[in-house]
Amino acid sequence: AERALRLLTLTPQGMLFEDEHVQVGVKHEYRGPAGRLALYLRNRDPARPLVAARLGVASTGPALRVQAREEDGAERAVPPGGQATLMALLECLQPFKDPPELRLQYTAPGGRAFNHLLRLPVAMTCFLEPVPLPDRGAFEDRWGRLAPQDGNDAQETVGLISATDPGARLARLRRMMEQGMRMAVVESNADTELLAAATFRTNTSGPDGNKLSVGCLVKVNVPSGNPSTLQVAVRSTAARASWGLLHAVAAQARGLE
Fold it and tell me: pLDDT at position 72, please?
């Protein structure tokens, strides 16, 4: 379940959950601070309906505003082999760690009731936009200007499942950053580090009336003499953004195989 959730945050669609009775698929897309989710509940039974089926999306805090609309009402029967659909709009207001959750309820053929609470594949990285930098020197200049203060320098040492070929694992993480986490990776001659830059977009207005954005820099290193770990560090102009982004990047790094 954890691995599937991590992969789904990097890809536009896939299977979120399945058991002997149902499958739940998800499609999601983002632009700046706005996101859109489509959730599909499929009845796997070819002969009998699901009854009292209900889907609902709930935010886990004030960082995300969720507007959800379920087709054909909040509760319904799902015909044999048929599906129910839930559409949800997301609005990112501030940095966050915990994703919104899907409430799934249904009564299976035979009368047994099920109630699931599923985390959705929505991470802080979904609301990033890449910031290309010309070279390592430009990155280090910005990194130095974001001197540690007020908790804006977040760090974590991540243990890897295996110490085999840490360079290959960094290459995989680079692809994740560029293709799924919406970061611009900075070219570096070192094969034991990754450098990346992005802007975190919100729909919260600042004092000047403009929407607040947070510049973020990420460093990932293979510590000398300890190839079974990765050192992940994030600096930004806001402490909550640093720690929220660290949480998202470290989760992907931790799952590298």
Answer: 40
Tally the C-alpha atoms within 13 A of residue 255's C-alpha that lie toward its C-beta.
16
Task: Look at residues 5, 83, 8 and name the one whose alpha carbon lies nearest to residue 41.
Answer: 83
Domains, the chain, ranges and CATH?
Answer: 1-122 (2.60.40.1230), 126-256 (3.30.310.10)
pLDDT digits (tens, 9 = 90+) for 74-98: 678 899 999 999 999 999 999 999 9
Which amino acid appears at position 53 of this protein? A
Q: Which two tokens stand for residue 229?
A: 């770990």
Query: Is-contact 229 221, C-beta < 8 A?
Result: no
